[in-house]
């Protein structure tokens, strides 16, 4: 910018502002405001930085005006001669002026010197750049969750810089698909997952490895997914290698798996092609966790599933020849299935499960032989009937014994009497042992305490109520933590795994703290109330919402004809909902 005067050609000023605004895709008023600020800065350099100088460029005519502004203050408050004017002096200029009024003195046009022109150029450039960055941020922050396309501009240390047209995005190394190489000028599509405001401009983060990228690709290729008829309920990826998606249809006449695969696999192949050959397993999603887990482990066949809902872990038993298939190459299949379902999956072969069962069966048999003074045949019979502990035998209803072949009332009473005597002996031994360990009677008085529990506490050095109050639930129940190889390992607590639930352990510790005088009893009531609010009925599924609308949930007096009419209006197949288990699940929530 050479020597340009404030009186420069008005039309030229407006043309420059318009051209810059169009090139940078920003508002022309921002460019004009930047020019005004540049003129003000140059004028202060000429007249003095201490002055309050303001410039104005008319956006319609291009007319430029420059003022020096002084604020009128009371004589006794006068401090700054450059920016303030005494009221007595102001009255001589204009009698209507009052404290707080501004007196404007128009300044004559002047020519920019070389230094002033350079300064003005920097001001305008910075303002325009800031406005451009703000425009980019506002434009792309609302596009988070979309697929965007652009041209590869450059590749730096594995990070791909993408020209999106009006901004630049970045695919970081860990957001890209492994072994996928891009060259400058390649066209690329990616999922926009984050836009952050930075000092140097907005950072637009793109990903080709995110599960949501696959979801969006299926929405583009499968009209039923885009329209919401088919839902992708879960997605797990090993980018560039293999992926699993769980799909469900809201229309019983549409097969969700078939719709996503397409005629001769055309739809899924379009997604596979975009993902550099990533193999995709399309799995029917189920409201039943066990069924969904079995489906997720395909192509392996599952023999048995045992769920642990407290820890969201599941033990899956497969045939010995199916074990490698269930694990997959480098554990890929079971890992993806675990990510897809949200459950930690522990695989075990049928032979290992059988060995474990035989071992547990033998241990129970030996326990029953010792506790009941019974022969091996009788102990094995009890173990095979599902009795797992002496407590069950001691306190089970006598009728449950009579149903066993060869058992009558006398045999049942005799077995239960022996079981109770055994438990009393064990309790007495444990009570004596806990006294030896120094566990006080106050600890024994805590609700939920048993002699065996007291012995285990004493063995851990927990002997007083204050010691119990100082525990946390994990100390009692055990917990999981990352092992040396990064995989979670179970750390045993004072009690064996499964002997006490986490919530019960928390309540037990809270009651000990009340007994120790650390907290008031009201704290337990507040905790229980909070647990009840947290455990309130979960959000209804699509099926349950549909059934609720049809009067199947809650108190409804609609007759069958009204329900069928409403179902037809909503486009819902009642028989399909029932087959999916909506009624059963709803009933369980009731």
From TrEMBL:
Its main location: cytoplasm. It comes from the Bacteria. Signal peptide: none annotated. Keywords: Cytoplasm, RNA-binding, Transcription, Transcription antitermination, Transcription regulation, Transcription termination. Residues 571-590 are annotated as: Disordered. Residues 145-209 form the S1 motif domain. It is found in: Cytoplasm. GO terms for biological process: DNA-templated transcription termination; transcription antitermination. It holds the Pfam family NusA_N. One of its GO terms (cellular component) is cytosol. InterPro entries: DNA_repair_Rad51/TF_NusA_a-hlx, KH_dom, KH_dom-like_a/b, KH_NusA_2nd, KH_sf_prok-type, NA-bd_OB-fold, NusA_N_sf, S1_domain. One of its GO terms (molecular function) is DNA-binding transcription factor activity. Monomer. Binds directly to the core enzyme of the DNA-dependent RNA polymerase and to nascent RNA. Participates in both transcription termination and antitermination. Belongs to the NusA family. This is Transcription termination/antitermination protein NusA.
């Amino acid at each position: 910018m050479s020597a340009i005067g404030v009186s420069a050609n008005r039309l030229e000023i407006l043309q420059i502002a318009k051209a810059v605004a169009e090139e940078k895709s920003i508002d022309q008023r921002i460019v004009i405001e930047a020019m005004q600020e540049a003129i003000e800065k140059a004028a202060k350099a000429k007249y003095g930085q201490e002055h309050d100088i303001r410039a104005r460029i008319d956006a319609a005519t291009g007319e430029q005006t420059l003022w020096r502004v002084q604020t009128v203050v009371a004589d006794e408050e006068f401090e700054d001669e450059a920016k303030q004017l005494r009221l007595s002096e102001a009255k001589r200029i204009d009698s209507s002026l009052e404290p707080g009024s501004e007196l404007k003195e128009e300044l004559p046009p002047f020519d920019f010197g070389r230094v002033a022109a350079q300064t003005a150029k920097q001001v305008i450039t910075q303002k325009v750049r800031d406005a451009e960055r703000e425009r980019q941020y506002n434009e792309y922050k609302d596009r988070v969750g979309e697929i965007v396309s652009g041209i590869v501009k450059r590749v730096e240390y594995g990070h791909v810089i993408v020209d999106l047209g009006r901004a630049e995005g970045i695919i970081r190394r860990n957001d890209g698909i492994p072994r996928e190489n891009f060259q400058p000028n390649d066209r690329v599509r990616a999922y926009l997952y984050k836009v952050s405001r930075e000092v140097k401009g907005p950072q637009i983060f793109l990903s080709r490895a995110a599960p949501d990228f696959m979801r969006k690709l299926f929405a583009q290729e499968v009209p039923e997914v885009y329209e919401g008829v088919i839902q992708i309920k879960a997605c797990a990826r090993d980018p560039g290698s293999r992926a699993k998606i769980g799909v469900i249809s809201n229309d019983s006449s549409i097969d969700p798996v078939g719709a996503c695969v397409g005629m001769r696999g055309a739809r899924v192949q379009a997604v596979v092609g975009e993902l550099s050959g990533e193999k995709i397993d399309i799995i029917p999603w189920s409201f039943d966790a066990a069924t969904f887990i079995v489906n997720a482990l395909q192509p392996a066949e599952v023999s048995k599933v045992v769920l642990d809902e407290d820890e969201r872990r599941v033990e899956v038993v497969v045939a010995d020849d199916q074990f490698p298939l269930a694990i997959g190459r480098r554990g890929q299949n079971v890992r993806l299935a675990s990510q897809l379902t949200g459950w930690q999956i522990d695989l075990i072969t049928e032979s290992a499960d059988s060995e474990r069962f035989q071992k547990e069966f033998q241990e129970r048999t030996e326990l029953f032989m010792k506790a009941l003074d019974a022969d091996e045949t009788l102990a094995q019979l009890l173990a095979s009937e599902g009795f797992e502990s002496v407590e069950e035998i001691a306190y089970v209803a006598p009728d449950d014994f009579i149903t066993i072949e060869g058992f009558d009332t006398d045999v049942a009473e005799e077995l239960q009497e022996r079981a109770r005597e055994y438990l009393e002996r064990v309790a007495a031994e444990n009570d004596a042992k806990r006294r030896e360990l120094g566990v006080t009677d106050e600890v024994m008085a805590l609700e939920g305490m048993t002699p065996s529990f007291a012995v285990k506490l004493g063995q851990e050095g927990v002997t007083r109520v204050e010691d119990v109050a100082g525990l946390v639930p994990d100390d009692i129940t055990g917990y999981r933590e990352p092992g040396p190889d990064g995989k979670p390992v179970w750390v045993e607590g004072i009690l064996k795994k499964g002997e006490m639930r986490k919530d019960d352990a928390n309540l037990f510790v809270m009651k000990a703290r009340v007994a120790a005088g650390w907290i008031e009893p009201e704290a337990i009531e507040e905790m229980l109330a909070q647990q009840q609010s947290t455990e309130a009925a979960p959000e209804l599924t699509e099926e349950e919402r549909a059934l609720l609308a049809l009067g199947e949930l809650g108190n409804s007096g609609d007759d069958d004809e009204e329900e069928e009419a409403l179902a037809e209006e909503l486009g819902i197949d009642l028989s399909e909902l029932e087959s999916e288990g909506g009624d059963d699940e709803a009933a369980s929530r009731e």
